[in-house]
Amino acid sequence: MIISTCAGADISIPPDCALRADEVDSSVKLQVSKVFDPFGWCNLARICAHSSRDSFVDYWVNQSMFTMDIATQIFTILKQPDHKYLTQDDFKPILRELLATHPGLDFLQGTPEFQERYAETVIYRIFYHLDRTGSGHLSLRELKRGNLITAMQHADEEEDINKVLRYFSYEHFYVIYCKFWELDTDHDFLIDKENLIKYGNHALTYRIVDRIFSQVPRKFRSNLEGKMNYEDFVNFMLSEEDKSSAPSLEYWYLLASYNNKSLDSISCIADITIVLSYSHCIRLEQNAGWN
Q1: CA 191 from centre of chain
Q2: C-alpha angle with apex 77: 75 to 78, nearest 5 degrees?
Q3: For the whole model, what pTM was predicted?
Q4: Are residue 130 and residue 224 in the same domain, yes or no?
Q5: Cα–Cα distance measured from residue 209 to residue 249, given in angstroms and rounded to the nearest whole number
């Protein structure tokens, strides 16, 4: 699993505990070791640090990790030593551990490509919701303000990964990935305007697609003119599918803005109204079982 309640463990530290690793009292090491469970996040943190069990225990004590709340512990362990933020790469060990140990993902053991795509999608979803500035970095404040840790705890406790709706659901990943694969007809992991216009049975207007590719609502990560990569598509689809979230509301607001300043583009607003109404009707038909 990826997280446990080690932050709340009842562990006392001798007041005279030395700070140097070679002077850490053996009894303290034993107490800290009791925090580790086979798949708990403490064990994962040790893996992230590329250290032995004992050296990680030393690190845990020397860095006064006992005094930190669980969000600060996770942030401190996962980030690079010279960084004051988390990057997407910092989350990869967590996803590797999740894929290796979660019973709800056992069926992926023989499909490394889908493991990789699932991990990417989870990370993209995390940054879509928490990285509101689009910087590619997560600060400690952003980590604390979000609900990622709660979702990690839920994934730890729930054997059916699809019940962990926030970030980790395999079914959510599968829907996103299949839609991208369907639009990416040449399977180069890039889609253009002509591909995106087919999204949702042509639910988008050409004006909306033009605005999306102008990168007004969100900058693309593809770094290729006129091309959207998989991460860009995930950001678009999350905005399109759940219009009640704060990132989605901001996305559609910016789509309707004129010169990126205010909501006074009547044509674009009309297009968005059509898109939202059409999407709503399609979902009603699907829920009712209509053809």
Answers
A1: 22
A2: 70
A3: 0.76
A4: no
A5: 17
Give the residue numbers spanning the domain of 123: 88-170
- Alpha helices (H) in the chain, listed in sequence order: 26-33, 41-48, 53-62, 70-78, 92-101, 112-130, 140-145, 148-157, 170-183, 193-196, 199-202, 206-213, 230-241, 246-256, 266-288
Tokens, residue 34: 């009791």
Burial of 19 (0-12, 13-18, 19+ CB in 10 A): exposed
The answer to whether residue 123 sits within a structural domain is yes
Residue 224 lies in a domain: yes
Q: CA angle at residue 233 from 228 to 239, to 5 degrees?
A: 130
Tokens (6 digits) for 213: 């590719």
Tens place of pLDDT for every residue, the chain, 291 residues? 554 434 433 333 333 333 344 444 454 444 444 444 433 544 554 445 555 667 767 777 777 777 788 888 889 888 998 999 999 999 998 899 899 999 999 999 999 999 999 999 999 999 999 998 889 999 999 999 999 999 998 998 999 999 999 999 999 999 999 999 999 999 999 999 999 999 998 989 898 899 999 998 899 999 999 999 999 999 999 999 888 889 998 998 888 775 554 444 444 544 555 455 544 444 444 444 443
Query: Domains in the chain: how many in total?
Result: 3
Do 25 and 57 belong to one domain? yes
Residues in the chain: 291
| Residue 199 maps to a domain | yes
